[in-house]
Amino acid sequence: MLIAFSLDFILHIIFAANDWDLAFQIVAVEIAIIVHFFGPLALLCGGPIGIGTQKQVMKYGIIIGCVLTMGYWWAVNGMAFDWWILATPALCWLAHFSLKSRYDWICHLLYTGEVQNVEAGGGV
């Protein structure tokens, strides 16, 4: 996910510098989704994994996501810090924990055969 975020970050600078408004807006929406849903997206991109690894990915994902979320809202606020930016990690927290319990269901939709193999203890 950090690679996707980095690519989008570079693209948003290029698009803004060239006044490509539509492309900039699309990338800005992608950045917003990535920063707020960092952990769940990392889980989905990584494929089916065991519960212990899921917990680690979500733990580190929420830490990274909260930092990126504050940075995102700082940028949206005209690169000026304001008190409410300290509250924006709550959005990331809500996104992570609203999807945490749904990971297995989403994973079954995307990785049907592989999920059964992981659940049986065979790994992917």
Tell me what you see in this structure:
This protein is an all-alpha fold. The chain has one domain (2-119). It has helices at residues 2-17, 21-36, 38-46, 51-76, 89-100, 103-110, 112-119. Helix 1 packs antiparallel against helix 2 (21-36). The radius of gyration is 17 Å and the shape is globular. The two termini are 20 Å apart.
What coarse outline follows from CA principal-axis ratios? globular
Mean pLDDT: 84
The percentage of residues in β strands lies in under 5%
Largest sheet: none
Structure classification: mainly alpha
Helices and strands, in order, run as HHHHHHH
How far apart, in Å, are the first and last alpha carbons?
A: 20 Å
The structural domain count equals: 1
Offer a quick outline of the entry.
The protein is an all-alpha fold and 124 residues long. It has helices at 2-17, 21-36, 38-46, 51-76, 89-100, 103-110, 112-119.
Descriptors:
124 residues; mainly alpha
Question: What does the secondary structure layout of this molecule look like, with pairings?
Answer:
Blueprint: H1 2-17, H2 21-36, H3 38-46, H4 51-76, H5 89-100, H6 103-110, H7 112-119
Helix pairs in contact: 1-2, 2-4, 3-4, 4-5
